[in-house]
Amino acid sequence: MGAALLWSGFHAWLLNHYFELSWTLAAWDSFIFNLCILSTVILLGSLLTYLPKTGIFQVTIGLGLILAVASQWIAAQALLQIIPSETAYLQFLSASTPIRWVIGFIIITGGGVGVIYYTRWKELLEVSSREEDTATMVREAELQKLQLQLQPHFLFNSLNSINALILVQPDQARQMVQQLSDFLRLTLKRADEPWVSLAQELEYLETYLAIEKVRFGHRLVVVLHIDEQSRMWPLPTLVLQPLLENAIKFGLYGTTGQISIEVSSRIVNNELLISISNPFDSDMLPDTGSGFGLNGLKRRLYLLYARNDLIQTTTLENRFLVNLTIPARS
Amino acid sequence: MSKAILIDDEPLSREILKSYLKKIPTIEIVDECNDGFEGVKSIQQHQPDLVFLDIQMPKINGFEMLELIHPMPAVIFITAFDDYALKAFEANAIDYLLKPVSEERFTKAIQKFLDKSAPVTAKTTDLLETMAQSPSQNNRIVVKTGSKVKIIPVHEIHYLEADDDFVKIVTTDGAYLKNKTMSFYEQTLDSLQFVRVHRSYILHISQITKIEPYQKETHMAILRNGQQIPISKTGYSKLKTILGL
To answer: What residues in A contact B99, CB-CB < 8 Å?
Structure first.
């Protein structure tokens, strides 16, 4: 509104200063013409919201032209009615018609284009805030699900081990109670920390592995190859632990005898690459791959990075390999 | 004196059973096993009266192991948490112990076994039928050839054939006998992939290359390896519906 007033003032001053119109005439001229332009812009703006999105700029230019001519004609007619006796002014009015069309056209079309961009921007804002909401909801739900998944089996089996240790090795039982508490505390803490460094995640893995080793120490060997540079890389929380848990589970239950789980990490092309491998027996079902519980994780990574290729699985000489890529945090 | 075998993949889990069993002089532990494969062998060798059996074990689970054993000994199941199995236990009124195993509960289970109040084997057979339909088991069949245990993924099956009291499972690698009924497999296998085309045959649809008319109203299926399988009149109409002919 301020801009419209300023422009009208400028319009009147122009007429008064360069075309020697009296202030009254200049004011009338400015008021009527600019009122017409303003109402036309509003009309065009509301019209544009109902028009199809394709070819909207061509339509705007076309409409701008027609509306500019029409609105200026209406303004001229109105002035004829208001000030019929000023012959000199009316001559000036008639002479300045083309220039008024051009100015009207520029303002009206400009206003229309502005309205288009403004609507688009608002839509984009809405879409992205909706996407964000969905993503947050999904992530929270999945985090919760992941946490719950981890609990029952693991917890009951650990308690059973502690039960046994109390009988045979009471000191180790106490140690395991401590390890289990550490692990549970870290798990709960993870719920509030969407991002952690690889080093932090490894610390968490250690507490988890300590417990698994009490249960399966006779069969389970875990080898870590962690590149020093990769330690501070940020990654979404609770991504690595479920992968390791899966690898251990499929390694332990998919084969008999000793198993080794290998975890390696390094940075390549500004992306963190982590690979986790476990042995599997070829006479076990091929669907261990698809049923590996990776779909939820893939979805989460997609929500975070908008990429579908961050988890890849392959088999290599009786080993099942999961390759995880964590891009730089945007 | 009763002979018992412990089958559990976690040494600590066996440890606790051992310490509880020490106080029961009438039961002697004759062997301990780390998985179902060792379990099958050990049971064959020792013919125990009682087996303590963990359910989640490497490669084949406790139920699949039991399917391979005849005659079946008394079994006390032990599990940490398995919704499906727990429901099956309840449904078949079978005694089971939950991890962590309490001594009190353990003693009760032993008492039940010593009283021999109920013939357990019939119930256990029903239980195994229920478990064979569980999500973790319904895409494979575990069989025994000689002393070796083999896991057959169902997609490798060509067809199943009735063979007296057994069912012959024919695969690319050969044929295996399983002590089950045809109607059991008719019910448990995926009905979109396996069709009972004949009183004595269940056919894996993906193995069929051709169906030719045979005598009167019967047909003959030609499999990928050239083998011919008879199709009865009702079998043919079932096949037609599934194949959308």
So the answer is: 156-157, 159-160
